[in-house]
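RECORD TYPE: protein structure
NAME: Acyl carrier protein
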Amino acid sequence: MNKGEIIAIINGFLVDEFEVDGDVITPEAPLKETLGLDSLDYVDLVVVIESNFGVKLGEADFVGIVSFQDFYDLIENKIKAKG
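PREDICTED:
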């Protein structure tokens, strides 16, 4: 799975699950503020990532995640580490 596919899948479920306008999802946009995430939303996000990519995310994984690009990179690295 390449980076473009990862981004397309992530953006697709963010639009569907979090009802966000796809136009506001840009690599530089702030993840938390753009999505309006609260603690329950993070749980939903983790579940969706696990079901779509088969990787687990923990609280520590979100430290330092500011932008959508940071989030894309995190998922890509988790997928690569999984093998």
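COMMENT: The helical segments are 3-18, 31-35, 39-53, 68-82.
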